[in-house]
Specification:
Blueprint lengths: L2 E4 L1 H4 L9 H10 L5 E4 L2 H14 L5 H17 L1 E3 L3 H13 L4 H16 L5 E4 L3 H9 L3 E3 L7
Parallel strand pairs: 1-2, 1-4, 2-3, 4-5
Helix pairs in contact: 3-4, 5-6
Amino acid sequence: MASYFLDATALTPLFVRGPGTDFMMRLMEEIEDNRKLIAAGTPLEVYAALKRGETEGALSEQDGAQARAILRTESARMVQQPLNPAVLEAARQMLDQHPLRAAEAIQLGAAVVAREMLVDVAIVFVASSAPLLSAAQAEGFEVLNPVEQQG
């Protein structure tokens, strides 16, 4: 049974309606919390996106506050890969091998370390960033882009 490593770009549509929202809502309902993997910094990335949405006027303060409260609850139920030295080293290696931003490299580095720890567990890397998905695929992950899914 596969586990899903969820990048911030995959989680954000759960809190701000847009491309990929319906698919991610179905996916979150279908998989158990213990098969939802995230980097420990992912909730902060999503939190920042929500705050940015408020600043830019895409979200009301009330909707932003409600989304952040749900984010805290939901992310606490997921398996979080700590941002430890092994993850940071894996992220550095990802930067050496792929044209990624630092945050993307940390996400992929966390997934690589999680895969090393979860022997015999298939991990699907879920994101909507094309460069990140390309790098994840090159690193041997099955990838899933919620924006490209129907419905």
